[in-house]
Amino acid sequence: MAGLVGCTASEGGGGIDIGLPGKARAPGDVIRVSPEDGGRGVPAEGPVEVKVDSGRLERVTVVQVDDGRRTAVAGAISADGLRWRPRPDTRLALAAKYSVDAVALDAHGRRSARHTTFTTVVPESRFIGYFKPENRSTVGTGMIVSFGFNMPIENRAEVERAIRVTSDPPVEVVGHWFGKERLDFRPAAYWAPGTKVTVELGLRDIEGAPGVYGIQRKTVGFTVGRSQVSLVDAAAHTMEVRRDGEVLATLPITAGAPKTTTYNGKMVVTELYDVTRMDGRTVGFGGEYDIKDVPHAIRLTDSGTFLHGNYWASADTFGSANVSHGCVGLRDEKGGSADAPAGWFFERTLIGDVVEVVNSRDRKVAPDNGLGGWNMAWNLWKAGSALH
Q1: What is the pTM of this model?
Q2: Any idea what DSSP says for residue 300?
């Protein structure tokens, strides 16, 4: 997978992070994607296209990701390597979310990456909920079931009642609303390894707002794998990786510099990119950096905190200094090395694993920033349910 990211300052003067992928195409960005990133109401017939002016596309993946399912869109790169298009008979699903991931090589063999998303047109007076994690996936013990709705929900109790999240072995699972367009579910503590979680959507014909009805009726689920919780100590410049309670390794890291500190708190892995782009021009840092091939990038927040490989800092930086724009960096090599600390950790990471940062001179990450709900006390979490 691949994406476009950059470092950005959060509101309130703290928590400098890496920004959302694909936003505000940077000057000189070689990969062009249609529909535009974040596009809504895209017709079922598209068009969908990925192209470069020179060099060649190395790989392109277009995937329907709504409701936790991943359905690839069949397509091909042209013989000259400059363009990817879907098959001529392709018709996109309605009321669906799609992601586009592309990697290109220039004439000198240098890689660039881009990640974008778009959603297709939703039938009039209908609402849908986009679900994560993916159906039938195996996730870490910190996974939170999260629904994002395509329009504001007024009848939140009716919608929450129509979504059932159950587990084997059984635990109490409670929903919490963040505004009118997001509903997350979690238990009081991390899931036990081996837990089977079932999500039943009974939204069809549920009135989410006056005259607006749901269209989904399906059952999806996922399995909780082994427990892995990593503790980043920003002051000690270390990350202790624990698997099922036992220490696997203690790795030297670099965290946010004094003026661009890293959030404290529990963060959950939501995306994994083997290579991604980080460009300061897309997020207000001017030309401070433009790194087109950041290896082993792991997303921790929606606002953009990443744990990623770093090949441009000297080796003695890791374990001794904090120099990043808010991310957590692990030593790596250009092109990414499985033997480097970043590659080692990347290969042992699942969506849903927990990374907790302590001793940073910043505030705690907000519970609605990524899957940050573990930073909220259980009684407050339950108070955010429309059914309590």
Answers
A1: 0.83
A2: -
